[in-house]
Amino acid sequence: MVGKVNKSKKISSNSGKNVGGKVFVKKTDLIGDIVFKYPEVIPVLGQAGLHCIGCHVSVSESLEDGCLVHGLNKKEIDQLVIDANKRVNEFENASRVSFSPVAVKELLKKVKSANSKYVRIVNSFGGDFDFEPSNSIEKEDVIIKLVNDSNFVELLIPSRIERMLRNVEVDYDSKIKDFSAKRKKNN
Which end of the chain is less packed: N or C, by CB atoms within 10 Å? Predict the structure, then answer.
């Protein structure tokens, strides 16, 4: 792996139901908080019928209350909490985003041409990601040091986006002059 983690933020666990692994999601947690901290649980919530995770009520409604409104019973709610925690644990144990040597070389070019200290990964139109030169570190950034030969570039990535890109490898295609990403399979 080319990318190495230089600094990362830890998210503390809390109590609740789970089978194996740490507990991150409780049924008393607000849906909005769960989705913000652990975006990887969105498909799990959607499969349980909670398709309104982005609605205005999610910021003040607990997971249990949202489930009850959508007709889930206690057993189904408990299973949803188990499934959500399983998903979070998978991401907790997943490898950080990695970059091919060619991708690191292109990021180095971006940093040098802009005379910047870092490169930041940002959301772009349509849900894609892009890279922008940067000279400042934000409070929520995770810093990943990417090494290519004797050169390195430090990638700044908001912790929420870093979670979404776990098990992803980024490459650069010189023919189309763009980056591409592919999720690696879990071992």
Answer: C
